[in-house]
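Late entry, adenosine monophosphate complex.
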Amino acid sequence: MRIIFIGPPGSGKGTQAKRVTAKLQIPHISSGDMLREFVAKGTTLGKQAETYMKKGLLVPDELVIDMIMERIHQHDACRGFVLDGFPRTLRQAQELDQALANSGLPVDCVIHFDVPDEEIIMRSTSRRLDPETGRIYNIHFDPPPLEILERLVQREDDNEETVSHRLTKYREQTAPLVDFYRNKTTVYKISGVGTFEEIEANLLDSLTQNGSF
Ligand code: AMP
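Prediction complete; structure with ligand written out below:
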């Protein structure tokens, strides 16, 4: 099953993608995580992407498209995947569509996470990452255990100004993809507000309806 998660930055799609891919035993392909890894390793792609990421801008299509195309053709993705954070522009969606059509493996469904802007800003600025486990906490509603507090870090692009930029880019360039996919596959709109468990239950309901679960 090939599933695409679309939602504003900080809508919880990464957290839900980790949970659902563990259950479905398919890879979670997050373009943001992949790019951050390249930045940390200091690769050419990482260096090119870093300046855009720091400002909350989208990394140019050609860089991201090649990276994802290579990833979805790796062996572990042959049973399917959840794409999180890709596609983010019409060009990315068209290229993905073409690549999947060429392999005869269309997208099974799109999950659209709906979260109001004020909630996104509040969530993103209180988000913290545990670099040792990759686990994401929120200092307000998913607080970390006290003993690991000191090692937690805030993503460089999780400050209010950058989050606002990312949100504007999302509304302008990514949200319209929901309509693009409505003409091609089933799109399930899920409220991204609620407890992790409530959101997960709605997500699993949609995937069950779709026959992906
Ligand atoms: P994320 O972790 O998905 O919020 O992504 C973090 C940052 O990586 C974004 O603000 C962009 O700068 C960059 N990025 C991630 N995915 C994409 C994509 N599909 N297209 C362009 N830039 C991306």
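Residues 160-174 form the longest helix (15 residues). Will revisit in the morning.
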